[in-house]
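Note to self: the last two entries modelled the partners one at a time, which told us nothing about the interface. This time every component goes in together.
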Amino acid sequence: MDQLSPQEVFRFLLALAVLLATARLFGEGVKRFNQPAVLGEILAGIVLGPTVLGEVAPKLQYGLFPLEGNLAVARDGLTTLAIVLFLLVAGMEVDLSTLWRQGRVALFVSLFGLLVPFSLAFSTAITFPSSIGWEPGVDITIFGLFFASALSISALPVIAKTLLDMNLYRSDLGMTIIAAAIFNDLIGWVVIAVILGMMGTGVHGQGIGNVIFLTLAFVAGVLTLGRWVIHRLLPILQAHTSWPGGVLAFALSLALAGGAFTQWVGIHAIFGSFIIGVALGDSSHLRQQTRAIIDRFVSFIFAPLFFASIGLKVNFATNFDPFLTLVILAIAVVGKTGGSSLGARIAGLTWKEGLTIGSGMVSVGTMGIIVGLLALQYGIIHERMFVAIVIMAVVTSLLSGPAMTRILKPKKPKRFTDFLASRSFIPSLKANERKSCIGELVSALPLPQGFDPGTVSEIVWEREQLMPTGLGMGLAVPHARLESLPAPLVAVGISRQGVDFDAPDGEPAFVVVLLLTPSDEDSTQLELLADIAHEFHDEDIRNSARFTKTYTEFLALMKSHRL
Amino acid sequence: MDQLSPQEVFRFLLALAVLLATARLFGEGVKRFNQPAVLGEILAGIVLGPTVLGEVAPKLQYGLFPLEGNLAVARDGLTTLAIVLFLLVAGMEVDLSTLWRQGRVALFVSLFGLLVPFSLAFSTAITFPSSIGWEPGVDITIFGLFFASALSISALPVIAKTLLDMNLYRSDLGMTIIAAAIFNDLIGWVVIAVILGMMGTGVHGQGIGNVIFLTLAFVAGVLTLGRWVIHRLLPILQAHTSWPGGVLAFALSLALAGGAFTQWVGIHAIFGSFIIGVALGDSSHLRQQTRAIIDRFVSFIFAPLFFASIGLKVNFATNFDPFLTLVILAIAVVGKTGGSSLGARIAGLTWKEGLTIGSGMVSVGTMGIIVGLLALQYGIIHERMFVAIVIMAVVTSLLSGPAMTRILKPKKPKRFTDFLASRSFIPSLKANERKSCIGELVSALPLPQGFDPGTVSEIVWEREQLMPTGLGMGLAVPHARLESLPAPLVAVGISRQGVDFDAPDGEPAFVVVLLLTPSDEDSTQLELLADIAHEFHDEDIRNSARFTKTYTEFLALMKSHRL
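The predicted structure of the combined assembly is written out below.
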């Protein structure tokens, strides 16, 4: 019986623990700079791979992440599963109805956004094959096609994530970008399917015609009849099997079977699970909770493992080719942004809108890496080219968010916790009446130079006397606007015995939130007061907040119920 | 680079899809007979393994589930990960405070419940080694110890699941059983650690003393300092990392690292993740939502994959030894039930309570299989013994639930949907006033012989006139008690335009639930009315119910929000 030896089990588990922890750590790290987590995850792999750890401690690196033997095979099996499930999640995010609504503009954007970088890359590849890194023995057309695909396919998950992070997902522009990325992905994968078909990588080696026919039949079948059957089956599964296990296992088996099918056809397994994901995600019978379980587990466990494993495969330092990287980057950025903007302009949008869409589409990110990985596995490209593609993918993803922010300047919703410093949280208020309570909270604030706590307390107290700020249900929000205050200030106090803030329900306040805003920002005060009211709307949250003992616990509570 | 070939990826994904789907299907199947899903999952593996599929279609069986080569290694890596994560979940279910509260009784039950079957099995093994299946070349003491461990360790997850399913989990008796099973598990694993230590299976081959010391130090360290650190860290992670990804990845990396550590020490990895699970689960800062995501994904995806993979390893037909199986079964049932009952009796409980606890503890189930699998891997036992242990585990788990039910006769809460037949759901009521609406619903009921729809409608209408049954918020529950009705009957009607049921809020009813109960069962009517009110308490559910179109959709809705 071939299986991992006890010693290999030890190394396998330790390697996974290190990979997952490092990937998530780096993922959180880059998020501080408003970058998508995936960048950090890829970086984690590069650090743990031959590039960094391999140079510092080669024995340890090889012991944990060998490229040969049982451990390499077991890790490959797991990351294959991971990427197949990640594409299931990406597919589930696709909203088919958006495709039709934003259809015309999206079609133009995606067509030009695909064709321009594709032809640019393809013509460069076949005109200067050697400088681009083509190696004798590889079919030059297939090389060019692969190169062009890796540089022109959009990274739907990264784009969706970026738009969500920036609160642009539900905007018209956001929907157009998403729709265009979906078209782009679908067309891109069919193109890749054709290329793979030309290479005859099918499991039973069928011809190109067969591959194209089977691929299109699969897509058409799953998105019509399959979608209908899934929509009918889901309520039956929910009604008659254990909840949510029945639906969960159904979705995953289906995705695995879909992946197996497209792999059998001769194209990559991820294509099958992506299409199954689209069909599943489209059904209104798939409950939010089921989606959440799959999405969270895959996005936070499987996806980091996959993206981190990329960096384990090659040495990014020795294989770094600045010229090649620059060429690839230039083609991707110019081709993708230019093409998409042009498409948007032709469809009748303004140049500004076109440019925003263009910078949204520039993320070749994760998909480009997957295509590059395929090409590397099939020996179409060498490692220097793969490294250049990964760097290109990372850089384009890096550019996309900031570019859109610069053009659109989207308003980030203000949260009162963003202005709450650690020292301004009082876990146990000493004051037992309104005025001294306000004084206690004000003295906990990091007031800027020139503001006297006594005067500030006086101003808040005057406002309080005008109209009491006890909202009822144990919450009070004393507040005031101060002239020339540079930024809002928030203090939170918890009172064990309660402080009377003259609330309409007569209840004393157990949670007191003091809010100071600049007098020239009318909307800020309103927005923050609304945020406070919203956060404490839920009774469970109010009750839990009364018993938080530290700033961190309070912050954790405010965060963990936002989902 | 060692990795799965495209052809192997196809077989790997297809095999996983088949394994997962079959395991869940069989799991759901046995649940219809009130048996835990794990039985079906093991059965699914036996069907897909050499025992059944291997006989019917050997080429297909070997193609999907080979025992040699890359596929076997990749599958072994995945199932190793699965069982490590399953033990994390099992550990998270442990409630340390229960241990102290039910301490004395639980200690007696677990000690006797462990010692009696252990000594019985050990003495049998060393007295009649050959008839028990010992083979020359194997250390007879180690053989006996392993044999005894496999027959005396309790299956905490199966026991917990059985108690939960029977609504006995929160009862005093349930808590005693759980506490005893926890002690039993902890002691059992330490015993197994010692045996493994005696065999010198440690990665760096340390002696027994070292293994015991490191194991105890690990348990003590994780359950004291580790628990404290985890409790402090969780709110920090929740406050400062993405939610719930930060905590999720933290929990899993920690479990993997713990598993790697105990594997390194020389005992099995599952022990480490179990202890980490106990420490994690104990923190009140681990939110329900995070627990749910880990629990659902592991219980419904990873656990089925692991338990189904057991049956793939050996042929259960050719290796079936009726005599050996009977001996093992007798020792386990007599030893475990007898020992546990005795322990309970000595601790001062009645014989009836003792017997209930004894039958609760009889599940050796999953844990026995894991121990057997270890012994098989290390060559301590042969395949016939392994098959006998698996059958013993399955049979004891089968006995436990029904035995407890027989002794305690627990009351299962009545659900109105249990009495709602498919034909009694009317998706679009024709009637637009109360009386005809009642008539329409009654005529949809499967009334038993001798009940005339007209008369029944009349009785319900009389009751309705006494006091209207419109509850408000769009819900009405006309009901009546009928003499000599054998069982409750329920009909549900959805009205598009609404039917006036004279509700206190003046709103017409959009969902009408008709309820008929036997006149000699006072409590049944109250219980079912309370259930209906509870089910429709949530506004979202009421709104969704108004637009359900089929019986299945309605049932799915009533089920999917119960979690």
